[in-house]
Amino acid sequence: MTVARSYRFEVVKLLSQWRVRLLLLACWITPALFVAGVSVQSTLPTDTLFGRWMHATGWAGPLVTLGFAGAWALPLLTSVVAGDVFASEDRLGTWRHLLVAVRSPRRIFAAKVSAGLTVVLLLVAGLAASSTAGGLLAVGNQPLVGLDGDLLAPGDAAGTVLLAWVCVLAPTLALAGIGFLGSVVLGRSPMGLLLPALVALAMQLAQMLPLPVAVRLALPGDAFLTWKGLFTGPAQLAPLLIGIVVALLWAVTATALAYVLFLRRDFTNPADDGSARRAVTTAALPLAALLGVTVAVVAGTTTAAGSGIEQAKVERALATEFAHLYRMQTGQLHRPAVTEGQLRTSAACAKAGVQDGARGPGNDWRCVVSWHLPGVTATGSAVYQLDITADGRFVADGDGPKEVNGYFLVRTSTGDAPNPLWQFDGD
After folding, report:
1. What burial letters (b/e) apply to 286-324, b meaning 16+ CB within 10 Å?
2. Co-location of 326 and 195 in the same domain
3. Does the pLDDT value for residue 52 go beyond 80?
4. Which of 4, 43, 172, 311 is the most exposed place for a label (fewest CB within 10 A)?
5. The domain containing residue 34 runs over which residues?
């Protein structure tokens, strides 16, 4: 049996499983229903990136879905598919029958990996397409507010949203490679099925800690977070590209280890599913070494130090976003238009009383934003409380004056919406 025929055979086997069919159906239907349903609710998921804009544009929906998918859905999906693609043969005891039909362990491995990746990509495509369709049908093709407060035209928003989904394919492939490795190494053990999800959970816990930038960038799942850099001006491409390269290295390394260990299997012994050997050590040590090497390389080739959250960077990001959102608010309130250059916005931030050299994540950042209006001598100022997470994302909460950044409704083309300067996300 050729590789192409083996591949088609493995795809048919995967698609014949009821749980895979159910996952495909869920990924192609559920996101659209979720996004459409949330978009018409009065309460929005404001704790999620772009969640507060789901009333304003249909392009916020796929980004909210992307945030959830990177944290939970994609690790679980890769566990079910990649984590079981080899182990299912161990449970059913069908290796000898498969070898008689295909006659080449190499072709079997190539066909199974290709089929598993095909199904994983179909699941990711379903999440992206379904959530986009739900958002556009429920809200419409409106401009999207980026993480720097600037408006992205519908065409630009569409391209950037698509690019963000493409970028998370790299960490998804890394988890798939880990799933293949776990499926080969652990055989019929349930741990093989859970390995990608457990690795993703461990990375999530690590990313919640104030780790050095080099360690964060060396994690194979960092691109699940750094895609948000596409929505700032200028785009923060360096962390994203590093995360993609690291994730692809993990995908290749884990799959190569799975290949080597698979070829060493004794398929004539039904009891040999790899768990009796020291394969766990053989698989774990190279990945640990890869993590150490990538940390060293990233630390030696990037200029960022510590947590990467510095006072000057926070002040610059906050001032830029405030200026963009102030212009938006001015238009919504039908006031005379101003430009960012005329506003000359600046910000002064402190963390826990530290006025100079403040750094690190936390919810104890306090910033004062100042700006100027044409023909007005007095300088305007507004206070914000910032909650900055370990990955650099911040939520700015207006703390007065209420006429500027307090809560009140403004009239927009899509209906009444909260004051854009009241609360907003940034990076």
Report:
1. bbeebbeebbebbbeeeebeebbbbbeebbebbbbbbbb
2. no
3. yes
4. 43
5. 3-301
Query: Which pair of structure tokens corresponds to residue 354?
Result: 């530290």
Please give the Cα distance from 295 to 65 (Å, whole number): 30
**Tokens coding 58:** 């249909």
Same domain, 188 and 332: no
d(CA 404, CA 265): 68
- DSSP character for 212? -
Look at residues 237, 267, 301 and tell me which one is the last residue of a structural domain: 301
Q: How many domains does the chain have?
A: 2
Query: Residue 145: helix, strand or coil by DSSP?
Result: strand
Residues 90 and 112 in one domain: yes
101 and 125 co-located in one domain: yes
pTM, rounded to two decimals: 0.95
Q: What is the pLDDT of residue 6?
A: 87
* DSSP-derived secondary structure letter, 259: H
Mean pLDDT score, 88-100 = 79
- Average pLDDT, stretch 163-192? 92
Q: Determine how many CB atoms are found less than 10 A away from the CB of residue 366.
A: 16
Residues 289 and 340 in one domain: no
Task: For residue 163, tell me if it sits in a domain.
Answer: yes
User: Which ranges of 40-104 does DSSP label H, i.e. alpha helix?
Assistant: 60-68, 74-81, 87-92, 95-102
Q: Which two tokens stand for residue 190?
A: 């349930």
Last residue of a domain, one of 301, 326, 343: 301
Most distant pair of Cα atoms in the chain: their distance: 87
Task: Please calculate the CA angle 201-202-204 and round it to the nearest 5 degrees.
Answer: 65
Instruction: Return phi, psi of residue 383, to 5°.
Output: -105, 140
Tokens of 326: 């102030």
For the chain, give me the number of helices (H) and strands (E)?
17, 9
Is 306 contained in some domain?
A: no
The whole-angstrom distance between residue 11's C-alpha and the CA centroid of its chain comes to 27
> Which pLDDT value is given to residue 269?
66
What integer pLDDT is reported at residue 104 of this predicted model? 85
pLDDT at position 276 = 45
pLDDT tens per residue across span 328-341:
999 999 999 999 99
Judgement on whether residues 243 and 316 belong to the same structural domain of the protein: no
On whether residue 249 sits in a domain, the answer given is yes
Question: Is the domain of 222 the same as that of 359?
Answer: no
Q: What angle separates helix 74-81 from helix 18-39, to the nearest 10 degrees?
A: 170
Tell me: do 204 and 185 sit in the same domain.
yes
